[in-house]
Every structure is written in C-alpha cells, then in structure tokens.
Design brief:
The protein is α/β, with parallel strands linked by helices. The protein has 13 helices and twelve strands. The protein has two domains: 144 residues, Rossmann fold, CATH 3.40.50; 180 residues, NAD(P)-binding Rossmann-like Domain (Rossmann fold, 3-Layer(aba) Sandwich), CATH 3.40.50. It has a seven-stranded parallel beta sheet with strand order 8-7-6-9-10-11-12, with helices on both faces. The protein has a five-stranded parallel beta sheet with strand order 2-1-3-4-5, with helices on both faces. The radius of gyration is 22 Å and the shape is elongated.
Amino acid sequence: MATILKPYGSSNWEKEALKNIANVIGVVDVTGVSTGALTEDEIAEVIKSVDIFVADVDITVTRQILGQGEKLKAVLCKSIGVDYVDINAATEYGILVANNPDFCVTAVAEYTMALLLSIARKIIPASLAVKRDEWGARTTMGGIELFGKTLGIIGLGRIGREVAAKAKAFGMEIIAYSPNAGPAVASTIGARTVSLEELLQNSDVISIHTSLREETNKLINAEKLKLVKKGAYLVNVARAGIVDEQALADALNSGRLAGAALDVLTLEPPEKENPLLNTDNILITPHIGWFTAEAFEKANRTLVEQVKSVLAGVEPPHVVNPEVIDRWKKRLSNF
C-alpha cells in the first residue's frame, strides 16, 4: 500500500484530489492533518514510512526531513516555485522533485491585474469609506489610468508573459528584465528587454514574477528602490523574499512609491511588527492569487498524473532536478 504525506490543512478540493489518487492507483494511505500543519520534527518522524510527500509553501522540506524518508520516492510540489524544498539534498538522496508549473498561470495573471487596478484606482479605500459613511472621501480618491503607462515586468516566465498580454489589452507599454528570457521571447509579447536599473527608472508600474533563488533574494532593496520613478506602483505576487520589506515600507512612507500591492509576505501570517502592516498606500492579501476553482482542478489533475507515474516507476511530468533520474531509478530498485 502506498503512503502519501500531505502535512498541512486540507480543503475540500484537496480532499477530492486525494480521493482521485486513491481511485486511480488503488488503495492508498493518506497521512495528513485536517487543520494546521505538522512541525518539522513531526514530519521527520512520520515520513519514514512515506512513499510520496505532497509539499506546498506551508512547509519547508529540509535536509533533515528528506534524510528520514527511508521509503521516500518523490516530493511533489503543488506550486510553481520550489524554493521551500532543499533540492540539493533531495538530489543527493536520490529523491525526485517535481512542481506544478501551469496550474495557476491564468489565475495569478488575472489577480495581478486586479491588484494593479485596485491600487491605481484606490478601490479598496473607496469602498471602506462608503461603509464608514464617509461619502465625501471620494474627493481624495483620484487615481491613474493604465492606458499609455509603462509596465515593467521582472521575470518573463509563464505568468510574466501572461501579465504582459493582459496589460497590452489595457494599452500599456511593456518593458521587461528577465535574464533567462532574451529579446526574442520579449518580442513575441510586444515587450523589449532592459536592464533592471532601466526598468526601475522608467516604469510607472513594476510587477514581479520571477522565482526566489540566491540571485533574486532581496533583488528589490533600498538601493534599487532609490532608482524607482517617483510616484510609481509596485506589485508582487511571486515570492516575498525578492523584495526587502523594510525598504518597501520606507519607499511608501517617503512617497517614492505611490502604492504597492502584495500577495506574499516573508512570514505568513505576518508578525504584528511587520513594518508593512502600519504603512499607508499598500494592499496586502493572504497569498490567494492562485486560489481559484479552475486552478485547483488543474493542479489536482497534474498531481494525480504525477503520483500515478511515480508509483509505476516512471518519470513524472515537470521534474525540477532531472539530474537525479538515474539515481532515482536505482533508489526505486531497492524498494
């Protein structure tokens, strides 16, 4: 009997996915929790008998956890990013890691535009003013139009390109900084590539869609924010670590940035001391950019396919450490 560990709270959609897995592969023991999340020590204990670890940003998959996975065949990440998994350790142990790169592209791109429109037109504070019986506050709610503005996209992956397409429909000019995607990729979406410095200096709106890795950690820091055009807006729906939160708060408080919208924070949920919580002109949502019925359906389909492949000893879709395949097959032969 295969054992699958999902060590965090389950929504009804996720429970349905696990039922689908059981229907596809037969009897399966799902070790998980209905609410909250297991601690690292608790995971390290139960993972000894686990075949597949279904991971997400709620849990950091450490070397300690992976080292205790005596039967562990794969870590299947429900997200696009895999920065919460120790990929080097997994590869060293012969454990395959796969992600889910396509499931929320549309959801996050649409959410990016929703956040941008919300801060550009001050929709949230306007609504709250009406509910507080402050109709006269409308005179302070002047915003900006997106038409003719320059959108600077950091990261031209799937989501970045989709955001560019949607922004073009609003009549925005698109520039991009994306070392992994050259001018040819940018030209297919009507964008041109520039340096990070040029992007910051010329963008009316900066939208972040790159992954979090060593070279992008605090990519947008105090020094970089000094380059930003005064009155610009910043949107981050990627990973919180890409932006220095204290530096962002300072840029908002000083008026360098006119506004910001975040769907990610360094610590989720945030501590009360997080400087952004006491900053004006910022919209913060609880990491829900990906959260749609359609995205869950896509994610669940991919997860079922990946689980089925792993348990059959076949390389699943979307492996992020392909160099492990030979070692992984050797590891499987020992079970």
